[in-house]
Amino acid sequence: MKIAATYENGNIFQHFGRTENFKVYEVENGKVISSQVIGSDGMGHGALAGLLADHAIDVLICGGIGGGAQAALAAAGIELVAGAEGDTDAAVEAYLKGELVNTGANCDHHHGEGHDCGHHGEGEHCCGHEEEDHECCGHGGAGCCGSEFSGRNVGKTCRVHYRGTLDDGSQFDSSYDRGEPLEFICGAGQMIRGFDAAVADMEVGQIVDVHLEPEDAYGQPNPNAILTFEIKNLPGSEGLTVGQQVFLSNSMGQPVRVTVTAKDDVNITLDANHEMAGKALNFRIELVEVK
Fold first, then answer.
1. Bridge partners of 25?
2. Taking 50 as the threshold, does the pLDDT of residue 112 lie above it?
3. Hey, which bits of 50-203 come out as E strands?
4. Which of 15, 61, 221, 256 is the most exposed place for a label (fewest CB within 10 A)?
5. Residue numbers annotated as active site
6. Which domains are seen in the chain, by residue range?
7. Which residue, 64, 107, 116, is CA-closest to 250?
């Protein structure tokens, strides 16, 4: 198990998005066996969640943190304990004793970490490839694809037509209906794993039908991706209603679709799980061109 804490002069640094150093603790059987300080290498807040994921961090302890960064960490499967302060070593020991809890502390002194809730118009489609930003998920999140594929098309720009359906036969997306093939780099992580794998060794003009279980699509719903914020710390959330879908900006500046699942006078709960999480998907894929 690895725990990272925002770090400055021995204490918990209070602004996640501006963190220059993390102290990383290796833990076995509830005890710290080693620790080291790692730098952010000059990265801005947009890359910090990815940096932690790349170091296989399981838990982040920090002070203030924005809503977008919380969503990015949740997508990466990193447990968040926000609102900590004081000595870093002491905070980690308190966590291991079960005495440190996540307060959901929100860093609301600036908007650099995506503290705004962006309303997008009706008709935004969400398909098996997240066409809007070519990003299937966060670092290491459920349903992410990698570059482990082999085949004639891996690393090449592919253009495909596809139709996506659920097991009941209902269609959830189709490039045919839009009249424009989808373009992506095969094996580069722009697609869900099963879609990438299907295209990896296709020939131009070939049509294949594939059935993807959740593990090769968007994974199972992640309970850590259900986030509760104080409404006052999430500008734009005042007028949202339960069931509405909107976008937050994550720590990398990318839009993350969330669904409002609960709201009262003080707090709002957002589910950042992909709407296809937990579902088996079917695709008919036609390879149109390879560049």
1. 3, 35
2. no
3. 59-61, 79-81, 117-118, 157-165, 171-174, 182-185
4. 221
5. 162, 172-173, 192, 218, 229
6. 2-96 (3.30.420.130), 116-222+273-291 (3.10.50.40)
7. 116
For the CA atoms of 244, 245, 249, 251, the dihedral, rounded to the nearest 10 degrees, stands at 100
- Residue range 247-266, pLDDT digits in tens: 776 555 556 778 899 999 99
Strand duo 207-212 + 281-290: pairing: antiparallel
Q: Which residues contact 121 (CB under 8 A, 6 or more apart)?
A: none
**What whole-number distance in Å separates Cα of residue 41 and Cα of residue 47?**
10
Please state the φ and ψ torsions of residue 270, each to the nearest 5 degrees: -120, 135
Report phi then psi at 47, rounded to 5.
Answer: -110, -5
Structure pTM?
A: 0.49
Cα end-to-end span (Å), the chain: 43
Q: Is 134 left (phi over 0), alpha (psi -120 to 50) or beta?
A: left
* Contact yes or no for 225/272 (Cβ under 8 A): yes
